[in-house]
Write a structure and sequence with these properties.
The complex is a heterodimer. By secondary structure, chain A is an alpha+beta fold. Chain A has 30 helices and 28 strands. By secondary structure, chain B is mainly α. Chain B is about 60% helix and about 0% strand. Classes of the chains: A alpha+beta, B mainly alpha. Chains A and B meet through helix 5, strand 5, helix 9 and helix 11 of A and helix 1 and helix 2 of B.
Chain lengths: ~800, ~50
Amino acid sequence: MEKTPASTDKLSLCYHCGDTLRGERVEHDGKLFCCSGCKVVFEILQQNDLCTYYDLEKNPGRTPSALEANRFSFLDDATIQQQLVQFSDGHTATVTLSLPAVHCSSCIWLLEQLYKLDAGILNSRVDFLKKTVSITYRQDRTSLKSIVILLTSVGYEPELSLDALNKPKESEITRSLYYKIGVAGFCFGNSMLFSFPEYLGVDASEQLLREVFSYLNLLLGIPVATYCSLEYYRSAWGGLRKRVINIDLPIAIGIVLLFGRSAADILTGSGAGFIDSLCGLLFFLLLGRVFQSKTYDRMNFERSYTSYFPIAVTTKRGGVETTVPLSALSRGQRIVVRSNEIVPADAMLLQGNAFIDYSFVTGEAAPVPKVLGEMIYAGGRQTGGAIELEVMKEVSQSYLTQLWNNFRHSARELGQLSELSTTVSKYFTTVVLAVSLGVLAYWLPKDTVTAINAFTGILIVACPCALAIAIPFTLGTTLRVFGRNDFYLKNTAVIELLSKIDTIVFDKTGTITYAKRSSVSFTGTELTSDQRDAVFSIVSGSVHPVSQMIAEHLQGTKSIVDGFTETVGQGITGTVGGRTYRIGAREYVGALAPATPVNETRSYVSEDGRQLGYFSVKNLYRDGLPAMIAELGAGRKLAVVSGDNESERPRLQSMFPQGTDLLFNQTPTDKLEYVRSQQQQGKRVLMVGDGLNDAGALLQSNLGIAVTEDVVHFSPASDAIISSTAFIRLAEFLRFSRLSMRIVIASFVMAFLYNLVGIYFALQGMLTPIMAAILMPASSITIVVFTTVTTNILARRKGLLAWRS
Amino acid sequence: MAVIAVLIGCSFIIAVGFLLAFLWSVRSGQYDDKYTPSVRILFDENTKQS
């Protein structure tokens, strides 16, 4: 059957869910689908009968071959099962698997119907944002292995990595925050009710009611001042122990004083206390925490090499293949690595055609051929057929692992607390403490009661709650705005770092160039249109990246190819219209042209043994790169560190401003050292990279951004992940981060004005509960509204958000 | 004015009920996944054959 050209625009959307087709495409009834899920749902809708769905299992095309099933035999291993299964009582078990292929509502539908496909499955629940499925199954009727095979056969191969085995549970942390908000909100609402007599002003006849209500208020204040405020006490204490005054210290002082003064007022009957203000304060503070804690569940910013490695490997001994857990792999063992599997340890090639894709180590897309006896480093992905290797070093001793562990030592800790708020709160706290102590000293000789009232009043009203919520609400909004534009940050502290960057270091391949697109040119005798079509037809049949690039470049019409053969790592041969074409490496084609220079990939073409010329494939810089470089370069130092050779120097020199450091032939350690040398000059360095070879530099830099083609899949550990399509807008993001820091400062000013008004009354010992009850929530609400509205409006004006019509 | 005491007492009890309901909903995991249920509700025939 002849394939239709891949790039027809009309057909590039999934017929069912409308998603753009990426990689895999499923054809059915003349329509294209993005995944089997969509296709299946379409089938069902088409035939209006759910029963057809059961046929799916019988469909021979979908059942994985015996060889493929063998791939998962390690799942029968008891220790591996134990690590994967979350819960088991001997009869039923629950397992949560990560399925990167989940992307639309049909996926959820299909995956929650799994019990119809396997009688042993009791139920399955999908978490769409996390891209996981949680399956409960009867252990006597089915096994983990058959579930994984079933998932693979319907198009959702689970991601089984070492990393997945030991994931921390995060939901408990967020849950406790929700509990606290619930309690604080409840107390806030009710304490306002109980303060009604106070707000309205009651006469002497209702004195009893007033007393009862203030005692109830005090009761409400207890859980708020203890349970809900725990985090603030902890953080303030932690800061003090490190001799740092952070923003949580004045907040903790404020909370303690609010509660203490209220308790004293209520118990002595001298006043109604400030419990309503206290509850309101905590409610807004906790709300800010939730707003700030937006996380991207499906992304992992803390990856280590373990997330790329398989859980188990196939070993071969005396012709018998067995699967062993990766941790049990030792030197001298013979292992089998099949197509698309990762070489788990440094090993020597014994048998087979090795064609290793090191893209996740180096960022280079083109696979590298290896000959027998050559050393293959861990981390490469085999793209040809199955190969056999002898393990030379244990997993923990491999080059990649060592590299990773070295990097980890240099990793810095990214503080959760913002630098700006720490600086501001340091001065703020000192000034407030000085003023309040001064007031205390002034009033004390004259009037003890007023002295205490004024002292506590100042500390209460100066409680920097508005300061504390300005950052979470502004930066939380900015984080969401960036997320909408495919720029995902680890936390809000990254925005502040981003606004202060003065040096930007780029990786070359895959970062400022396209990872998968290249510029292709042909040198030699000009091809006739018949020759073009012939070459196009032949290269279209190959999955090798270079073939695909040439096919995309030629865009010819397809004709029938006879005798198509592909020699992995060498080239392809095919006969079109009676003429035999050989396309590939120089030796393969038998070309007489001068040796291929190292700076480009060449594919030679011959027709019936006669050489026609060669295609040269070069990196293609991203569209819009010069404009972005020009903007980023204004006032900042730029640098390019590349693992490649110097061939691109002239082109880069013309693109980057004068004074840009252009470094070539850089090893991962060189890149790290370069970043460190810049930091030693007092620079704040932003590193942008994409491969594992940039991982060290990404960690060493003040801020590391990983560029990735697919945000769900691979990216090295970093502070932020940017989709390759959004990369070109980096300058915009930097500009907007500075803008949001300015919004934060503006709201600080507003908060100070509120504080000044409060302090004016408090100075005279005249701060009444009702005044505090108005002033404090009013300042909090003003800040919340101001920051979110301004950030949203500015984001729209800067084109980062669309105006809603 | 005594009626206010009764009213506020009642409203307090109702509010406690809502607080408990909220705490229960968090505990039972309803806030763990805030997206998928919104899609799931649109599917027909999701009943399980036991």
